[in-house]
Amino acid sequence: xxxxxxxxxxxxxxxxxxxxxxxxxxxxxxxxxxxxxxxxxxxxxxxxxxxxxxxxxxxxxxxxxxxxxxxxxxxxxxxxxxxxxxxxxxxxxxxxxxxxxxxxxxxxxxxxxxxxxxxxxxxxxxxxxxxxxxxxxxxxxxxxxxxxxxxxxxxxxxxxxxxxxxxxxxxxxxxxxxxxxxxxxxxxxxx
Length: 191
Hints:
With 191 residues, the protein is mainly α.
């Protein structure tokens, strides 16, 4: 396998775009090469097979979706409260909207994981680790609510963003920020 980290990253970013635009069935080495603007066959020099490509795409998505630790620290400066949880949920939604392609790619990976046990195992491990870190962070910061509060917020935001990105008219005249506020005020106890 070729060892050019910048090229590998470029191919993975192109693969994320293909995954988001064309779905898992459209994710081929040829499609990745075309999207990356490299000669046909380049991807196959970096990834031994499609499973390895899917696995590394998942890793790359999480790298791109992980916020800078300094941004997290700044976001957590205010005193713990329901209002801060609301601000954080809106911040997360804005970040994910800015990385819409990654988020849609992640949804496609979730669907593909239904058919690929190895991918499911890897994705489950990474998503569980992320959720566990969110629970720990919430509790360690003294935010209102318990571990289940964080889990319900996670599942609510995941579903809300799935619909917002895939069928945006579903919310009708409701604004995404307003829906997030409704979710937070119904789930998070007052401090």
